[in-house]
Design a protein that fits this description.
The chain has 361 residues and is α+β, with helices and mostly antiparallel strands. The chain contains 5 helices and 18 strands. The chain has helices spanning 2-30, 283-286, 302-321, 332-335, 339-349, and strands at 34-39, 57-58, 64-71, 78-85, 93-96, 105-109, 113-120, 125-129, 133-135, 143-147, 169-172, 175-184, 189-195, 202-205, 217-221, 227-229, 237-245, 258-266. The strands form 3 sheets. Strands 10, 11, 12, 13, 14, 15, 16, 17 and 18 form a 9-stranded antiparallel beta sheet that branches. A hairpin with a 7-residue loop joins β4 and β5 (93-96). It is elongated, with a radius of gyration of 28 Å. 28% of the residues are buried.
């Protein structure tokens, strides 16, 4: 009888061990990693990845891929990153950018097409392909110093992405400079350098090195952090020379750019009466280039349109100012994108929107 009980005990133990071993593959399968793509809202989720959206398919060779249908041609770079949800847990994720870095993978679409994105977990590389897919381009039509314009700094224009007064001059190939005279000394200021009137391409504080005036500092591409500095002087006013050097900037690694702020004593500003420019009164004077151009406006709607225009401009200004307060929430340290403004720029390029035309709002 004892031998029989011992046999039963051994048999039950063996069956339990077999059951555990059989269940392990299913447990591992249930806890598999999930890879998704995320990107700007022009074509994806607006940098809000979820383990159930834009999920990549695992291939036999261990790589992952996904095809996004009917991606429209766009006059700026598309941006994306791959996100790995560890064990499928939405709260445990890793981000992968271009060539295993934290920078976005950029590409262009020159003609409407399906875009296939492939990712190799072993090398952390991303590749986009499609009939209309082309390499990313980084043209700089203009470069503007954008920041806390006050006390004479940045001509007192605060966070003006398109401020003509703060447009930097290219003094050498890839070297841009702006001089601010008669700026109050011993006060704190903030600045970043934005290209082409948007945050799509900008350079700022790299978050590692100490800010040093009168010498070159590393400039981080699409930085979430403004350059904060205080020009110290025994005088009341200083002359600031802002320089952004992109001559050594590597478009692949997004590294090699530097910024510099030189400080020199300056005289107090001279007071001059403000000049007032006449404001345009007709649609032709406003220079509208949208599809409303040349059409007569309905006088009965002008009051309503004026209210809508004022409100819309206020929203855009707030969105631009919000860039100062961007926080590093896994992805914003690199993307620098303002999706609504990017969409409006695309619409403007296609002749369907003009910021100066109230009927577009």
């Amino acid at each position: 009888m004892k031998q029989f009980k011992r046999f039963i005990s051994v048999l039950l133990s063996a069956l339990m061990t077999a059951a555990v071993l059989t269940a392990l593959p299913f447990a591992a399968s249930a806890a598999s990693d999930i890879y998704v793509i995320t990107g700007d809202s022009v074509w994806l989720d607006g940098w809000n990845p979820q383990p159930t959206e834009n999920v990549m398919t695992r291939k036999a060779d261990g790589t992952y891929a996904i095809t996004v249908k009917n991606v429209l041609s766009y006059d700026e770079n598309y941006q994306l990153q791959v996100v790995r949800f560890i064990g499928g847990d939405k709260n445990r994720k890793e981000w992968y950018g271009a060539n295993g870095t934290t920078y976005n993978y950029d590409f262009r679409v020159t003609a409407d097409c399906d875009v296939t994105v492939a990712f190799d977990p072993s090398t952390k590389t991303i590749a986009a392909s499609g009939k209309g897919v082309a390499e990313a381009e980084y043209p700089i039509e203009k470069l503007v110093a954008v920041g806390s314009g006050k006390d004479g700094f940045l001509n007192n224009v605060s966070w003006g992405l398109n401020a003509e007064a703060n447009e930097m001059k290219e003094t050498a190939k890839g070297v841009y400079r702006l001089v601010c005279d008669s700026v109050r000394a011993n006060r704190s200021y903030q600045v970043k350098f934005a290209a082409n009137g948007s945050w799509m391409m900008n350079w700022g504080y790299d978050g590692a090195a100490e800010v040093r005036l009168n010498e070159a500092n590393p400039a981080l591409y699409n930085s979430p952090t403004n350059i904060t500095f205080t020009p110290v002087s025994k005088k009341d006013y200083v002359r600031l020379t802002l320089t952004l050097d992109l001559s050594g900037w590597d478009k692949l690694t997004k590294s090699g750019a530097t910024w510099r702020i030189d400080v020199a004593d300056a005289a107090a500003p001279t007071t001059q009466p403000p000049t007032t420019k006449p404001q345009p009164t007709t649609r032709a004077d406003r220079g509208s280039n949208c599809h409303h151009a040349g059409r007569p406006a309905d006088p009965d709607r002008q009051r309503d349109l004026q209210h809508r225009a004022a409100g819309f401009r206020d929203v855009l200004e707030r969105r631009e100012a919000d860039h100062r307060d961007m926080v590093d929430s896994d992805h914003r340290r690199q993307h620098g994108q303002r999706p609504v403004l990017a969409f409006l720029r695309q619409e403007q390029a296609r002749g369907r929107y003009d910021a100066r035309c109230e009927r577009c709002l």
